């Protein structure tokens, strides 16, 4: 059979809700051939030469006994995953989920919750991840570790360096935005894109847009909060406050960078706030902004956003994968500044969303290196 040189071979670490939406999306949009059909959540149906159907998962890693050893298309339907199923009857993928090292991926407090709501560690021995990546022919890995998994994320980043493949970091441990790690990727001649995916229409982009509006219209913002809660394992995991340091930083930085002046700790409160099991993958965000307009007259906005959490970032990852593949084709090394600024909450360098999008279009056309 003729080899498809356009195939984008990816590995995924963390077969949770985000991975479920992504894999369902590959199937749901497999017949999209050109830019005529409207696919919500993508920049373009075709990026460079790459279609959605060019993306192929070739390796998958998890630690949950209900997922390890199963075909990827079955593993995504296993508990505790509870996101919406929008693509049914997925064919077998031919990729078996392999056991990864647990490290700090599973928070202790999860043990206090019913098995169907939490991670349950498999008793299988971890595989040699670098070897698996090499064997699979993966060109990049998408990292979906739970918030607070510093060691596990560093492990997968290091595995990419050793296997010589690209890295997309969808969660808030700082790798692509950290100078030391960024230099490792640069020295290895490998591109990376991160950190912490900014969803299609989620709390961050909504808050950034309102912050931008206030700033543009000359409103002085004095105080703001963004409270988020939901009923998936992401929110259960985040009940352990110690795991939240980089998540809070990432979310806060993403909003502050759109304000004309920094608000500081006492006046800007952003974070995951609670776990409400019956909400499942439905995330609720309450957002408030207070400020002053002409004559120091007060103005405030309150907003409630209700969104299925995991499909919200899948389209962004599909675009990110294709942009990273273009970077691999062009032998770009280190963090992709334009894509990281547009798709991620905590990039190496923040730009406004409009500017970042313009930069990506230039990158696609080859007018910008990264
Ligand atoms: N939903 C969004 O739009 C969005 C936006 C920004 C960031 N994120 C981040 O993306 C990450 C993934 O989100 P999710 O909703 O899929 O989470 P999830 O809890 O559904 O999935 C995490 C998966 O990782 C597995 N895991 C734990 N430790 C592991 C290890 N050491 N090796 C391999 N697998 C391990 C778990 O078993 C689970 O399957 C989270 O950090 C989340 O905060 C998501």
How does this structure look, described?
With 370 residues, the protein is an alpha/beta fold. The protein folds into two domains: 8-198 and 311-364, 3-Layer(aba) Sandwich (Rossmann fold); 203-308, 2-Layer Sandwich (Dihydrodipicolinate Reductase, domain 2). Helix content is 32%, strand content 20%. It has helices spanning 17-28, 72-75, 129-136, 150-163, 179-188, 203-216, 233-237, 245-256, 311-329, 337-343, 353-364; strands at 8-13, 55-62, 97-99, 140-143, 166-169, 191-194, 220-230, 268-275, 282-293, 297-308, 334-335. The strands form two sheets. A seven-stranded parallel β-sheet has the order 3-2-1-4-5-6-11, with helices on both faces. Strands 8-7-9-10 form a four-stranded mixed β-sheet. Helix 5 (179-188) links the parallel strand 5 (166-169) and strand 6. Helix 10 packs across helix 11 (353-364). The structure holds nicotinamide-adenine-dinucleotide. Nicotinamide-adenine-dinucleotide (NAD) binds at residues 13-19, 61-64, 100-103, 105-106, 119, 144-147, 152, 170-171, 196-197, 199, 202, 232-234, 309-310, 312-313.
The name of the CATH topology of the largest domain is: Rossmann fold
Major β-sheet annotation: 7 strands, parallel
Q: What is the structural class? A: alpha/beta
Measured distance between first and last alpha carbons: 35 Å
């Amino acid at each position: 059979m003729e080899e498809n040189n356009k195939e984008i071979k990816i590995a995924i670490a963390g077969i949770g809700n985000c991975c479920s939406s992504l894999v369902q999306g590959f199937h749901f949009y497999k017949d999209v051939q050109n830019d005529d059909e409207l696919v919500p959540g993508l920049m373009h149906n075709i990026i460079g030469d790459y279609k959605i159907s060019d993306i192929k998962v070739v390796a998958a890693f998890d630690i949950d006994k209900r997922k390890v050893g199963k075909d990827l298309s079955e593993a995504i339907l296993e508990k505790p995953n509870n996101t919406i199923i929008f693509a049914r009857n997925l064919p077998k993928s031919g990729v078996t989920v392999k056991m990864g090292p647990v490290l700090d991926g599973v928070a202790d407090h999860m043990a206090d919750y019913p098995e169907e709501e939490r991670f349950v560690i498999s008793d299988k021995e971890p595989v040699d991840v670098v070897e698996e990546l090499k064997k699979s022919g993966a060109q990049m890995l998408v990292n979906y570790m739970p918030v607070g998994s510093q060691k596990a994320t560093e492990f997968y980043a290091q595995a990419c360096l050793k296997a010589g493949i690209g890295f997309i970091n969808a969660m808030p441990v700082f790798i692509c935005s950290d100078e030391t790690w960024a230099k490792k990727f640069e020295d290895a001649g490998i591109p990376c894109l991160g950190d912490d995916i900014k969803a299609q229409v989620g709390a961050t982009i909504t808050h950034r847009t309102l912050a931008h509006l206030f700033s543009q219209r000359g409103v002085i913002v004095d105080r703001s909060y963004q409270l988020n809660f939901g009923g998936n394992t992401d929110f259960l995991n985040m009940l352990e406050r110690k795991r939240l340091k980089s998540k809070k930083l990432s979310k806060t930085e993403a909003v502050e960078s759109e304000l004309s002046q920094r608000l500081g700790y006492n006046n800007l409160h952003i974070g995951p706030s609670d776990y409400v099991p019956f909400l499942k993958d439905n995330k609720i965000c309450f957002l408030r902004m207070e400020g002053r307009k002409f004559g120091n007259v007060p103005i405030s906005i309150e907003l409630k956003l209700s969104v299925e959490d995991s499909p919200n970032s899948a389209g962004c990852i599909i675009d990110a994968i294709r942009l990273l593949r273009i970077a691999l084709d062009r032998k770009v090394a280190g963090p992709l500044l334009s894509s990281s600024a547009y798709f991620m909450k905590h990039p190496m360098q923040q730009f406004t969303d409009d500017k970042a999008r313009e930069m990506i279009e230039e990158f696609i056309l080859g007018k910008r290196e990264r």
